[in-house]
Description:
Heme binds at residue 489. This protein is of the alpha+beta class.
Amino acid sequence: MSAILSTLAHSSSWITFRKAIEHCLAYARTQSRFELTLAAACFLLIGAMLKYPDRAIGTRARKDVPGDRGWPLVGNLFQILRYRDNALDFFMDQLKKHGKVYTFTLPSVGRTIQINSPELVEYVQKTNFDNYSKSDPTGMSTDVFGHGIFVSDGAEWRLQRKTASNLFSTRLFRDLVQHAFKECAHELGDNFAKYESRITPDGQLYYFDLQQELAKMTLDAFGRIAVGIEFNAMSEEGGNEFGLAFDYMTRRIELRGVDPFWRLSEWLIFPVRRRVRRSVETLNRYAYTAITNRRNETPEQKENRRKDLLDYFVDYEYEDGSGLTDEQLRDVFLNFLIAGRDTTSQALAWMFYHLMKHPDIEAKMREEIDVVFPNGSDEYTYDIISRDMPYVKAVFYETLRLFPPVSVSGVFALGPDVLPNGTRIDAGDVVGFSSYCIGRETDVWGPNAAEFYPDRWLQHDNHSKSPFGKFKPENAFKFNSFNGGPRICLGQQFATLEAMVTIIYILQNFQFELKPGHPTPVPMAALTTPIQGGLFVRVFKRYNNH
Ligand code: HEM
């Protein structure tokens, strides 16, 4: 081998090159098949390294877009792995270093052109929407998402979007605020009341993971409201089997993104293979049980309950009279559950953390709540919550600005394109955007962009009924936490109302204290953005209220 390499290295002219080839062939005739295969593999590897000296294999060079130089064949993989503990820091550091548009490559996904400016995001999410796809050509999320709304395009996506939007009516919201959301908030409160007096077996004060409790609540709520399932996550006997399987798989999908050989490694590492299989089985079991129950329901049973999301899909008919298959319904079920559970609960966890750090903001929220719902009243209505509580909404939206549950996302370019700033996009490129980064940009949000400052969402004019002013909505591409354009989050209003009912009920009745020595929360690199390790608090009843 070394003889071949040294001859090739010195082949400065065609004659010497020919001699080198002859030398190689003569040498090869003396070698075993194994050594020849090894030599060929080394040549291929060296050739590939020369072709892709600073980027992931298969990607085209892009000297015209700023970005850190990558390694041969693996691109920026090792660099991103160094940010494993907080992947969002990678995006922020790149933003500071290169500006709003930069690029990096990964062997599993190819080239990403990251655009962190509202104008460019608007172009991709809305103006040239048809050129960008959400489907997942890597297959990393297929075992969970299948062909559901998050990862489908074209007719498949339109069907799901249109069918699901039938559900989200003002009539439903009125009903949810007065019943389902309120009932779930009460159940959560019942658990808090138990935790208040609890002592651990070794006699210590009881600190619990508030983020996990909120996730249980949003899962139970969404199960009841959308798919007619009682997950019983909040009940202590429930076990939260579905939620844990979901958490594991969402984390797994994220890890697959930085492992070019994820199929092989998951297959080789038996405990991972087993846990993936069991988790997917759990998710499927819940989904198929719900679907079978729904298909077997009698007309009387159906009449005695409110029409839910699953009904709209089970009842759907194509032009030829056929309906959706069980597999399609399973994808609907799982996609909506991930949308409905993690996002809202994580945003609430981040918000309660900020309230513990900003008692002045919490006091103002309580002031608003106590005026609108005096004496601890829980006569919540859709009109009052959406009209008369600008400060509570402002605090929730300020949390979504700084800690958006979907903090980084992207689309695949179907064809070549040129962005409004002149950046070229090649077919197959990932165009990435980060509401987390945009939410922190000072030219977008002002010099105090990094500050938790809910007042930025309020405006004062003569028409505002509340002393806090009026809630001031923002452009969807500047405040991109709910996405924008035709794929804007379908559940924005649902999530906002659910969160507000929960916040109001909790602040009317409880107070949290952060566990002493709790580390400053760090966002976890998952499909959504939970607090890494959870949020451990103690809860107290609010005795000085009403
Ligand atoms: C605070 C809570 C929420 C936030 C911040 C949020 C944010 C988002 C974002 C950023 C997307 C786009 C994802 C992407 O394309 O990468 C999205 C899509 C979606 N969201 Fe939400 N979401 C929230 C709650 C909900 C809830 C509660 C539901 C259901 C009731 C929901 C239903 C959906 C659906 C169906 C889509 C897919 C829309 C499409 O592709 O057409 N979301 N959401």
